[in-house]
Fold:
Amino acid sequence: MPTLNGTPERRAAGVPAIIPSVDLRDALRTTGAVREFTGEPVSDAVLYDILDTARFAPSGGNRQGWRTIVVRDPGLRRGLRDLYLPGWYDYLAMRGAGLVPWAPITDRDAESEALTRAASIAAEATPGFAERLDEVPVLVAVLADLRALAAVDRDFERYTLAGGASIYPFTWSILLAAHDAGLGGVMTTMLVQREAEARALLGVPDEFAVAALLALGHPIRRPTRLRRAAVEDFTTLDRFDGERFTGPAEDTRQTGPS
Ligand SMILES: Cc1cc2nc3c(=O)[nH]c(=O)nc-3n(C[C@H](O)[C@H](O)[C@H](O)COP(=O)(O)O)c2cc1C
Structure:
């Protein structure tokens, strides 16, 4: 049920009280990727309030190893877009070949073969979110302080995963808080492919990794019914090969908002 988010703190921060706020359950079920924005700017007060809410995200050992850069300079924004685009065309090429782009376990030969098509995909591309990334109302680079991550799998020989878990909940909280403020957005990681250049562009020291680039703004339209697998498709009892966890009988199960 939407509520109004006009708390005294928010009003003091200059956040308009008339923005309909979303119920947490609805927000979790409807915060889909938004890549098309109206030209309406996002005020500093609203952006500050979003970051001020997101900072309550959890992190390993509560180290809060995130660092954010709000990128406003048009030249830097174009620079970020130019670094994003090669990864985007690589992504399209791999996806077009039926691969999961950059999956840690994949057919590397098929991936290399697919990547040979990236240049022609780039040449034929029509301007979309990626090509216009520099024009989105808000661009926030999210960095991870490598001295502050509880990367419990850092010495594994397989691909490591746990370090990001100290940063991405924060990133997701930004998107949830943006939704609550009537905005939409998307987390992007394409830039990570060109991390060294991205760090040089933004003057980021070596101790920090590029975790994401967030695009935010007023959505032209907002997705409401997200395509996600059902719980029983990814949950089993006791063992990986255990019985599917089906929860309550179908007739008592709650469905998402339409
Ligand atoms: C870790 C992560 C990385 C992502 N990277 C990108 C990206 O580089 N570019 C992009 O357009 N979307 C990116 N996305 C957005 C996903 O494509 C999106 O969340 C997913 O397709 C679900 O879309 P939906 O919410 O519209 O159903 C990323 C999302 C996550 C969680």
